[in-house]
Design a protein that fits this description.
10 strands; 17 helices; D-Maltodextrin-Binding Protein, domain 2; 2 domains; 36% helix
């Protein structure tokens, strides 16, 4: 993830402008970057009618411990539900036979793709990218290269809106928007909620092999001041804002620093750490490296960390002490999509509570689908894991969106990353 300038006090609020402008019936007011919003908590929207094609929940628990919604959240949920109360009737004559999705690696269940093809006769092919910057560059180089659906992170949605790369949704074709938890809708990067809809959210954490270390890894300090037993066995994320952001936090700064001296300090931290690092990898590759034993400690995203622990029980995934990144990935339709209608039908399908739950349970990323949570469709093991569904109110300012800065600040990060020499 790679976002730029606001310290967050609570995901309930910050998941709406760096966790504070979550949503209301009207577009939220942007909070100045220097103001830390007060921690508040919202709850998933109240259920309207349970979809007739959603399975009856069995052993999965109900989210009974979700805090009561704020007035703003209730207003948002009511407005969304009222505006989209009529279920979608799909005109199959308007569907194209195949959609092309550009997505992060291992970020959608094949079962979901098969179910959509069986129900609507549309095949969804998926190509992968490993960074938001690669996604943007693909579209910047010469327009849409042939994709109908993309999954940009929060700050990248804002950047692509500004660049005129995204289509607005026709919500008559996406009535399942009502199922989203309002704290994941109309956030700082898309305050009107017209260009993006939440897909998954999570945090950036650390996973480690407890069988080999015999001690806990708990903080950024553990990987920037490594003990002898992990030197040369650390996997960092190959993302300039994530890795420089972690170094900034280790130094006591926000990862959204704008001061050249602070960014330079973070660069020096990474240079000092570099001899002790096995390599810089994608989150998915760090997951594989932890499972194979090529690294003992790895920096990665929520779902990859949890999947790693499933594959190798000795691994542990933690949200590090101090401040870490909270992020949200989003479904969007790029300009030039060959069938906006078919793309909207697919996105509406993904927002069904039963489908969202299957995807979340399979991939182990936290879902923004409030109805899936309310209906008890999320696996109890995942729901009760504080590292997958953290106590947002309790963490408060320990969570921080990376938000997009101006060109001058971005140039500082780019230069620092180049001087660290990753991949050189």
């Amino acid at each position: 993830m790679n976002k730029f300038a606001v310290r967050i006090s609570g995901l309930a609020i910050a998941l709406a402008i760096a966790l504070t402008a979550c949503g209301g019936a009207a577009a939220p007011t942007t909070i100045p970057p220097t103001v830390a919003p007060a921690a508040t908590t919202t709850a998933p929207p109240m259920a309207t009618a349970k979809p007739t094609d959603a399975p009856t929940p069995t052993a999965a628990p109900k989210a009974t411990d979700t805090p009561a919604p704020t007035k703003a959240a209730v207003a948002t949920a009511t407005a969304v539900a009222t505006a989209t109360a009529v279920p979608l009737v799909v005109d199959k004559s308007k569907l194209v036979p195949e959609l092309a999705m550009y997505n992060w690696s291992d970020y959608i269940s094949q079962d979901i793709l098969d179910m959509f093809q069986k129900e609507y006769g549309v095949k969804v092919s998926v190509d992968n990218y490993d960074s938001n910057e690669a996604l943007f560059a693909k579209f910047q180089a010469g327009g849409n290269p042939g994709y109908d659906i993309i999954v940009p992170s929060d700050y990248m949605v804002e950047k692509m809106i500004t660049a005129g790369m995204l289509e607005k949704f026709d919500f008559a074709n996406v009535p399942n928007v009502k199922n989203l938890d309002p704290q994941h809708y109309k956030l700082y990067f898309d305050p009107t909620g017209e260009y993006s809809l939440a897909y998954f959210w999570g945090t950036t954490g650390i996973a480690y092999d407890s069988a080999k270390l015999k001690r806990d890894i708990t903080s950024w300090k553990d990987i920037f001041e490594p003990a002898d037993d992990i030197k040369g066995k650390i996997g960092m994320i190959d993302d300039e804002r994530e890795s420089l952001g972690a170094a900034l936090r280790y130094k006591g700064y926000t990862a959204n620093a704008t001061d050249a001296k602070q960014i330079d300090e973070a660069k020096k931290v990474l240079l000092g750490q570099k001899p002790n690092v096995k390599g810089y990898y994608s989150s998915v590759d760090n997951r594989s490296n932890l499972i194979s034993g090529d690294v003992v400690v790895g920096m990665l995203y929520t779902g990859d960390g949890i999947v790693a622990t499933r594959e190798k029980p000795g691994l542990k995934f933690v949200i590090p002490d101090g401040v870490t990144t909270v992020w949200q990935d989003n479904l969007a339709i790029p300009k030039g999509a060959k069938s906006k209608y078919t793309a909207e039908v697919f996105i509406n399908f993904l927002l069904r509570p039963d489908i969202a739950a299957i995807n979340a349970n399979k991939l182990a990323f936290p879902t923004p689908n409030g109805e899936a949570l309310k209906q008890g469709l999320i696996d109890k093991e995942l729901l009760n894991n504080k590292y997958i569904y953290p106590d947002i109110a309790a963490m408060g300012a320990k969570l921080e969106f990376l938000t997009r800065g101006d060109a001058k600040v971005q140039a500082l990060f780019d230069r620092a990353w180049t001087e660290v020499g990753i991949g050189q």
